[in-house]
Design a protein that fits this description.
The chain is an alpha+beta fold and about 80 residues long. It has 2 helices and 5 strands; from the N terminus they run βαββββα. The protein has one domain. The longest helix has 28 residues.
Length: about 80
């Protein structure tokens, strides 16, 4: 595993925003592991849930937001055209 001083998480970008994570470890498959202060365990981030720079993480969060907005628009459209009788 490779130790990294700083990564940026987008796992909960739509609810908590982009999060700064310090002292993470990256394995060969691209998964990141970290232990928050005050925690008894370690957490895992999939390769698409973390980035090395803040700019990359913000771009990913924008993509996630756009996908969610598109899905919500489609759901609203389906409800509007649905016949209720």
């Amino acid at each position: 595993m490779t130790k990294v001083d700083l990564i940026w998480s987008t796992k909960y970008a739509l609810t908590h925003g982009v999060e700064k994570i310090e002292n993470a470890e990256i394995n060969a498959d691209g998964y990141a592991y970290y232990a928050p202060k005050g925690s008894w365990g370690r957490f895992q981030l999939a390769p698409l849930d973390w980035y090395r720079t803040r700019e990359e993480a913000i771009n990913r969060a924008k993509q996630l937001r756009q996908r969610k907005l598109t899905a919500l628009r489609n759901a609203i459209h389906k409800l509007e055209i649905k016949q209720l009788y």
